[in-house]
Amino acid sequence: MVRTPEPVSASGTQRTPSIEVSSTRRTTQFCRDHPVAGARMSAVIEGLNLPASVRSRSADVVIRRATPDDLDAIVRLLSDDPISAGRGDAARDEDRGAYADALERIVANPANELLVAVDEAGRVTATMQLTLIPGMARRGSTRLLVEAVRVASAERSSGIGTALMRWVMDAAAVELGAALVQLTSDAARVDAHRFYRRLGFADSHVGFKYAVPSATTSAR
After folding, report:
1. What would the pLDDT profile of 70-80 be if each residue is shown by its tens digit?
2. Sequence ranges of the domains in the chain
């Protein structure tokens, strides 16, 4: 791999390079600038065998890491979901900067992966976020948290959601050494609850959320 020379300021001191658009270069730059966190990131990211091809009922889809080029497609998937849209994910132009910042933070976070599923035509048809959580409970078990699973409305009976979750359970969790896969689902998502039960998930806990007033106000 060819390394790009570090930029040097007029005074001769080394400047921190700007982050490249490419997600691979983003990761390389983050690891270079933050050696300790970068080492942790490499361990997590390298553990996932991506891209991965999975089979839905209708076609093959490829699961890969999201890049900045996927931003608009991911936001459309969020807004395509009525519950997400009701929370403010309405794909407004004025919110694009906030989503772009969020994507950059996820890419730079050593324990997170934002993934997309792409069909044979190259269209993003689904997305989800994975977070690896080391813990003390259950004899020091590591958990894999699944968040923000969204499938395009036109594909919701095609088996893509099942294929994605099976990959998480059978491949990603094993590759990352997770003893438990967990998720939360909005109480209004009754169909989703049946879907997760069919996959073998147990609704064993009650989840609680608290909306921080200052954060809620600034996000409007």
Report:
1. 999 999 999 99
2. 23-200
